[in-house]
Input
Amino acid sequence: MAGNVGTQSLAVTIRVLMDEKLKGRQKLFLVLKESRVGLTNGLILGLASFAVVGFYIFLFKGEAAGFSFAVSACISLSLILVMFLSSIVGTVIPILFKKIHVDPAVASGPLITTVNDLVAVVSYYGLAWLVLIRMFHMA
Output
C-alpha cells in the first residue's frame, strides 16, 4: 500500500510541477492536500483491516480476542501511518528534485519506492515489537 500511495502522490505532484510558476505556498498546500488524502485513505483502510483481520483471527484461527485485536491493531496502525507518510514522501521528493534541477519524473520513482518500503517495514515491525512487549508485561 505504501508504494501505491507514494506513486499516486508522485504522479499528482509531477503533474502540478509542470507549472513553472508554482510558488512555495502552493507547494506547501500540495503537500498538505496529499497528506490529508493519504491519512483519510489510511484511516478508512486501517479501520476496515482492524475489524476484518481481528475477527478473522478470532473466529477462524481460534485465538483469544485480546491477541486477535492486538495483531489487527498493529496492522491497522502501521497501515494508517505508512499511507500518511508515503503520501508526504511521494509529494516532497519530487519537489526537492525539481529544486535541485533534477528531473523528478526520472529520479523520484526508485527513491520513493525504497523510502516507502523502509518506512513500511520499520512501522509494522516497530509497532509489533511494542505490542509484543506490552503483552508480555501484562502476563
Helices lie at 2-17, 24-60, 65-99, 104-138.
